[in-house]
Amino acid sequence: MKAEQVEMVSVEQLVPEKHTYRRLKTLMDFDRITKSVKLPIKEVGATGFGRTRLIMCLILQFMEDLSDREFERFMAENNASKWFFGFGLLAKTPDFTTICKFRGIVGTKQMSRIFAEVKRQLQGAGYCAEVFTFIDATALVSKLSLWEERDKAITAGYEKLNNEVLPEVSADPEAKIGAKSSKKFWYGFKKHVAVDMQSGMITRVAVTPANITDADGAKHVMPRSGAACADKGYVGAISEMLRRSVHPMVIKRNNMKDKNRDLDRWISHLRAPYEGTFSKQNKRVRYKGTVKNQGAEFLYAVAFNFRRLLALAPA
């Protein structure tokens, strides 16, 4: 009978020296990130995997843009992820129910702490000066059609389906109908984002119902200093920018007397490279309600900033 050969291998040996996860751990202090989250010890201990590992799981899940079930398989099969979390080759990794339950324990407030700590570290490394800030908003879609809600509204005796009627017939009472133009509508939420124009990293992010205008949502992502570079949808926020001592670099509407077309073309040229901030993210929301989607967007912003950091930092 032929004897089997046994070779001793560790996870450390299986992850290449130039792997993305290795670079990320050299660029960011993950101990500070995980310690920024304040959770009850009993609730964290109930999961059996420890706070640090599960917080790292949440961050990596959004970096890889995976669902809970997809991420369960990813952790079990991917050696680099096991190294990132500190699991051994044969160690049991969290299942999708553990990830889902822990995300509920963490909550949006603690996710905002993760985002804030990442931003502090990036500012300390000189990546986010916030001298010039790009501001814009995009749609977050809950459902592609509202036929079911329309039928419920008709059955209930309503003449038409609108944002006043939706809470009565919709599964998500916080989702609303928003409009980008007279012909482009969506149902769900709106994401407002501020991007540092030096590094292209997200410095602020806020989620509102879809019917909140860009100008009204600007107050959630407006920088504390410097200049705000925005399109004509933010004309209504100019007074608030001036009140906060922020210089308004806002494209003016065609009917405004002080419109300077040359200046507006220059602002459009400045804004163009940062429009891609929204291009690679899935615009379908995962959760119901503003608060849960706000938490998800904090983690999406963290993942986005990590990718920008890997692109900007020298290897």
The low-pLDDT segments are none
Provide a count of the helices: 14
Order of H and E elements: HHHHHHHHEHHEEEHEHEHH
Shape: globular
Radius of gyration: 23 Å
Q: What's the overall average pLDDT, rounded?
A: 88
Helical content band: 40-55%
- The fraction of residues in strands falls at 5-15%
Sheet/helix structural class: alpha/beta
Number of DSSP-assigned strands: 6
How far apart are the termini? 50 Å
- Major sheet summary line: 6 strands, mixed
Question: How is the secondary structure organized here?
Answer:
Blueprint lengths: L10 H4 L5 H8 L2 H6 L5 H5 L5 H14 L3 H10 L1 H7 L10 H29 L7 E12 L3 H9 L10 H4 L6 E4 L5 E12 L5 E8 L4 H4 L9 E4 L7 H6 L3 E4 L10 H11 L18 H23 L3
Parallel strand pairs: 1-5, 5-6
Antiparallel strand pairs: 1-3, 2-3, 3-4
Helix pairs in contact: 5-14, 6-8, 8-14
Describe the structure concisely for a colleague.
This protein is α/β, with parallel strands linked by helices and 315 residues long. It has helices at residues 11-14, 20-27, 30-35, 41-45, 51-64, 68-77, 79-85, 96-124, 147-155, 166-169, 214-217, 238-243, 261-271, 290-312; strands at 132-143, 176-179, 185-196, 202-209, 227-230, 247-250.
Using brief descriptors, characterize the structure shown:
single chain, 315 residues, alpha/beta, 14 helices, 6 strands
Q: Could you characterize what this model shows?
A:
The chain is of the alpha/beta class. 44% of the residues lie in helices and 14% in strands. It has helices at residues 11-14, 20-27, 30-35, 41-45, 51-64, 68-77, 79-85, 96-124, 147-155, 166-169, 214-217, 238-243, 261-271, 290-312, and strands at residues 132-143, 176-179, 185-196, 202-209, 227-230, 247-250. Strands 1, 2, 3, 4, 5 and 6 form a six-stranded mixed beta sheet that branches. Strand 5, helix 12 (238-243) and strand 6 (247-250) form a beta-alpha-beta unit. The chain is globular. The mean pLDDT is 88.
